[in-house]
Amino acid sequence: MIIGVPKEIKNNENRVALTPGGAKELIKRGHQVYVQSTAGIGSGFSDDEYKAVGVNLLPTIEETYAIAEMIMKVKEPIEAEYPLIKENQLLFTYFHFASYEPLTMAMIEQKSICLAYETVEKVDRSLPLLIPMSEVAGRMATQEGAKFLEKPMGGRGILLGGVPGVKPAKVIVIGGGIVGTQATKIAAGMGADVTIMDIDLYRLRQLDDIMPANVKTMVSSEHNIREEIKDADMVVGAVLIPGAKAPHLITKDMLSTMRKGAVLVDVAVDQGGCFETTKPTTHAEPVFEVDGVMHYCVANMPGAVPYTSTLALTNATLPYAIQLADKGWEKACRDNEELKKGLNIISGDVVYKAVADAFGLEYKDIEETLLANA
């Protein structure tokens, strides 16, 4: 198979979809890998490192899309890339379709094959290609929130861990999954007073067993959220419904009850955000203020630590990329239920129900669609 890796062109996105080591594994199996020149620079990988393992370098993004049967990316294509995508071309990347209708409609129109990292799902319902970036984003959420609590950054001017004689900051984490757990670990490690909330009592029991004494668990409900955020210094939104739009757990009217200079960090922004006032921001302009409350809603948070993120992502995606390249996407998805669940759009047909429901689109049964493409 011919695999293309274009340079990411989203604002301040420095990750790359494939490391030189990952490219070497595909080349060893007889596949051709084309990487756009300088695509790996932001992650610390030079063109020479790619050439050394047999990668073909291409000067432009247009040439990279034009030659490839499978495009491997990190972030969803942006508007400038839509016309470059070919009919029946396989795109293997994060899409988060349910949060952005123009992208969904563009991929339908281009009749591409869209296999989304974030909906590849194991039998135990874990999301193996979302986990590494969730781990990075969860840890960064606390790190970034702590920075924007500083007065020069617009925050309350409070140190997360406090000092002897002064109380630490109060941190609320909504969601006890991968992101929430990692955010809680870092906040607890920095000495904050942390409450982690979830609707799953079994998960709360697990967290209660493994977290240090400065972490409390609480059932997530509208009443509890309203009460807890009143004196919170930082709230991390870490709620995920795979493939679907995130629910709004903090509404605009709640902001007036919060402390001025408190910080909301919405890690669910890729899925539409779990705060009503969320809107996507960038690393160049990461925050905005609503009713005196700072909002950090960067849609590609792990892009700020691209070396770590790129290695973690390639570790997770490479085994699946090898299957897609070795067998072709149709056979790979028939043979592997995990990959099959990653299919969102097939040649203009929406085959992931949460995406169809998000925009009132016709949903096509994936088994029938795969059979039609056999």
Automatic annotation (TrEMBL):
Catalytic activity entry: L-alanine + NAD(+) + H2O = pyruvate + NH4(+) + NADH + H(+)
Residues that bind NAD(+): 134, 198, 203, 220, 239-240, 267-270, 298-301
Binding-site list for substrate: 15, 75
Pfam families: AlaDh_PNT_C, AlaDh_PNT_N
Segments forming domain Alanine dehydrogenase/pyridine nucleotide transhydrogenase N-terminal: 4-137
Top-level EC class as recorded in UniProt: oxidoreductase
EC number: 1.4.1.1
GO molecular function per UniProt: alanine dehydrogenase activity; nucleotide binding
Active site residues of this protein: 96, 270
Keywords in alphabetical order: NAD, Nucleotide-binding, Oxidoreductase
GO cellular component: plasma membrane
Top-level taxon: Bacteria
Domain Alanine dehydrogenase/pyridine nucleotide transhydrogenase NAD(H)-binding: 149-297
GO biological process, one term: L-alanine catabolic process
InterPro entries for this protein: Ala_DH, Ala_DH/PNT_CS2, AlaDH/PNT_CS1, AlaDH/PNT_N, AlaDH/PNT_NAD(H)-bd, NAD(P)-bd_dom_sf
Family per record: Belongs to the AlaDH/PNT family.
Protein name per UniProt: Alanine dehydrogenase
Source organism: Flammeovirga pectinis
Gene it is expressed from: ald
